[in-house]
Design brief:
It comes from Aneurinibacillus danicus. It holds the Pfam family CotJA. This is Spore coat protein CotJA. InterPro entries: Spore_coat_CotJA. This protein is mostly beta strands. The protein has a domain of about 45 residues. About 10% of the residues lie in helices and about 15% in strands. The chain has a two-stranded antiparallel sheet with strand order 1-2.
Length: about 80
């Protein structure tokens, strides 16, 4: 399954004073996976495009904090 969120394992030294996060994540923008912008892509209406930050739905990728639980709590510094 294709996802914009990637994960990697963090090196944990045996001398670390605190237990580290074992996995970290980052997001890649959708334009990395679009070789060129084809003609005739659907577009948002201008007012909605201003709110979302892009005119094309294919290039819209909202950021979702992976450290928050499903109830919206948590999300401290990573």
């Amino acid at each position: 399954m294709h996802t914009f969120r990637k994960k990697y394992r963090v090196y944990a030294s045996p001398c670390d004073p605190c237990p580290p996060m074992t996995r970290k994540t980052y997001e890649t923008p959708p334009q990395l996976y679009m070789g060129f912008q084809p003609y005739g892509l659907p577009q948002y209406p201008p007012a909605e495009a201003l709110c979302l930050g892009t005119l094309w739905p294919a290039l819209y990728a909202p950021y979702q904090n992976p450290y928050k639980d499903k109830h919206g709590k948590g999300g401290g510094d990573a």
